[in-house]
Amino acid sequence: MIPSIYKPSQTTTIGIIGGGQLAKMLGLEILKMGMNFATIENGNQSPAGIFAQHDFTNGWSNEEELEQFISVSDIVTLENEFISPQILHKIAERRLVFPRPETIEKIQDKFIQKQTMSSAGIATTPFEKIDSIEGAIQFGNNHGYPFVLKTRTLGYDGYGNRTIRNEGDIRSAWEAFVLTEEPRELLAEAFVNFSMELAVMVARNKRGETVVYPCVETIQENHICVAVIAPARISEELQEKAKTIAKNCVESIDGVGMFGIEMFLCQDGTILFNEIAPRPHNSGHYTIEACYTSQFENTIRAVTNLPLGSPELRCGGAAMINLLATRNGSGLPDSILETLKVPEVSFHLYGKKDSRKGRKMGHLTVTASSNEEAFTIAKRAFQQLIW
């Protein structure tokens, strides 16, 4: 019998499915709170696995490895949404799992995710599932070019996304996503004439206690977030509107844990739902230095059903810039000395063994008296980095 409320102690072990940078930052908070953690990942020497009390390196698809992971874990959470719900259901037969498998089933497939939010009365971009090249062409005829073609699962950081400007782009995307050894199902979304991309982090525990972080502005290039500005450079009224939408998104899926909600601010002031991630999110990294309780600490509080900490800013403003690799090779930059000479900078490297162009290798954060000041300093510090 699984208890409805788990009481964490110094002997509690939280199992994290995944061993990347999010698991690493979760692990640091778990240790700070006097608990232990275990990771399961496909490969050794992962950023989190190198200091986890238990590190299982043959992956969650390995039945023996998964069984050992379950046996040492009291509560299980995840750092990515790509885990099969069937595996999560298997774990949930014996352990508390947050977010729940039922929640993941509603959002793992981005087409079902959009249907879920639309059914809850949350405004989204026009969308359709795409089963053929002709279907994509028809979508373009109906909604105009450009539009976005996405894989319904396993897409992140620009992987699995294509901006479609003409029929030739449709055929190219079809070859890349469908005519492969592992064909993917596709989703089309109408292009949004937005003025800004927004994101809000929301934490919710099993009792339904919910905290909502500031609405932030995200700056994207090639479908990858390159910077975050907190709070967003919009009116307080629009910020509150975005926070309400984000809270409604999490409640609509009975979410427990941490959730990152991405939205579009349209030129007429309309805010549209884009995507939700059932885990700590890149747009929330600034919370480590800038908020009273980071997204990572509140994730642990949420999944252990503890009281949630304040999400409020402890400064006037903050900015985060992702450190994206510019080459393939070592996981370390050539020099960080000049960047570290900027006194306001907090510098994070994730400990990944290898870099590849566009891969997130770390981030830097600046807190200041205003978001504009923080962003100016962060850009200056970033320009000093040699990679």
Q: How is this structure best summarized?
A:
By secondary structure, this protein is α+β, with helices and mostly antiparallel strands. 30% of the residues lie in helices and 28% in strands.
Give the tags.
387 residues, alpha+beta, 5-stranded parallel sheet, 12 helices, 30% helix, globular
What does this structure look like?
The chain has 387 residues and is of the alpha+beta class. Strands 10, 11, 12, 13, 14, 15, 16, 18 and 20 form a nine-stranded antiparallel beta sheet that branches. It has a five-stranded parallel beta sheet with strand order 3-2-1-4-5, sandwiched between helices. Strands 6-9-7-8 form a four-stranded antiparallel beta sheet, sandwiched between helices. The longest helix has 17 residues, at 236-252. The relative contact order is 0.12. Helix 1 crosses helix 10 (295-303), helix 3 (85-92) packs antiparallel against helix 4 and helix 6 (133-143) crosses helix 7 (167-177). The protein has twelve helices and 20 strands. The chain is globular. The termini are far apart. Helix 1 links the parallel strand 1 (13-17) and strand 2 (36-40).
Give the strand tally: 20
| Nearest-integer average pLDDT | 94
What best-fitting shape do the alpha-carbon axes yield? globular
The quaternary state of the protein chains shown equals: single chain
How far apart, in Å, are the first and last alpha carbons?
52 Å
Low-confidence stretches: none
Indicate the proportion of strand residues: 25-35%
